[in-house]
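Problem: given the chain below (471 residues), write out its structure.
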Amino acid sequence: MAHPRIIQGGMGVAVSGWALARTVSKQGQLGVISGTALAHILARRLQLGDSDGKMRHALSHLPLPGLGERIISTYFVPGGKKPDAPFKGIAMPSITSSHSLIELTIAGNFVETFLAKEGHDGVVGINLLEKIQFPTLASIFGAMLAGIDYVLMGAGIPRAIPGVLDRFAKGEAAELKIDTIGDSTGEANSIHFDPSPFLAGCSRSLKRPFFLAIVASATLALTLARKSTGKVDGFIVEMETAGGHNAPPRGPLQLTPEGEPLYGPRDIPDIEKIHAIGLPFWLAGSYGAPGKLAEAMKLGAAGIQAGTAFAFCEESGIDPVLRQRVIQLSLEGKARVFTDPVASPTGFPFKVVQLDGSLSTVEEYGARPRICDMGYLRHVYKKEDGSPGYRCPSEPIDDYLKKGGTLEETVGRKCICNGLMATVGLGQKRTDGTPELPILTAGNEVANVARFLKPGTVTYTAADVIDALLA
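Solution.
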């Protein structure tokens, strides 16, 4: 089949939600949902009252008998929870996640995919992070249950994922090795997922989606093409100007005078070598601008991926007030991002939009008590007795040190999980009434998002972005 020329980036937590992905797909391009923390997204939307009924509507189509009803009875609050009431706690994902969390993860991914695909025949993808391993298998299964067309994955080396897709499409179990700090024996922990018990009462079969690996070098692209457990169908080649997590610079880390990672010629992907692999590829990172699609295709690309331009359109999941503030900063020539080398617990550089009232400011970051209660970015480490332990560089420092972490690893770390939830209006309220503050991520093109405004308007749509990119 002919792949779409424009891929809408799978951004943040629910920034690229089902509404944005559906709109882009209906325009004939590849709409992409973010697959991060969809268990929490579903549970919190239900607790806010599900005012448009979309969550319950999608759950009614979940082909796993009784699961949708159980989730609704557990989390749905008619009319929504009280504004100052906290959201219900959900167990943090782990190697041995509870069955109820696995079910909620499957349902969350099904719901988001189902709604993105409903009512049209366009294609939809899901973006997952290799660094977030605990929910990966359940997430993929839930998305495949709803007929996902593409799986995109970066922030690591996702060699195992193509094989997982192959096995799930056959109804077979799959296993994913979990990165474990301090495991010098090579006896890595792993998560096992068998779809057959879920499919026992389900008549539908699972199709194998295309797999697109997100890479930052020809070397990684070639490695994945040759050594993955199954077929890699293409690549998204991200430059360091792309939003979210960036690949670290090659060689020893050096910082600019402003404190950002210093990238050099060695960090520029060799497009000719990637082209020579013979698989379709899309260019990303400052390619979401008029004229860039033609430029990419001249280099042999199948098209482009654009994230930041879509992140601030009307269909984006970003809180409308935050979205409008960033557009206004762009109009004034003041919108910018800082590539923070330490903000993310993953250790990857992470682009943060500089915005007052968010965790991007030193004052707000310093005032927030360190809390880790979502746990998607926790690391697994080997305890003295050989069993797996869990720690996050953004958790309370004393807790982290007791688990064998170092003080240096905690410096400047931000709670990306809670911050990104707050960005889309689903932030936790603490028992003292304090709300979690947002953290926005975007690429360098955030400076130029105002270019998509039509004269006399203050917002723009996903269709406006697509029209500009195709022009």
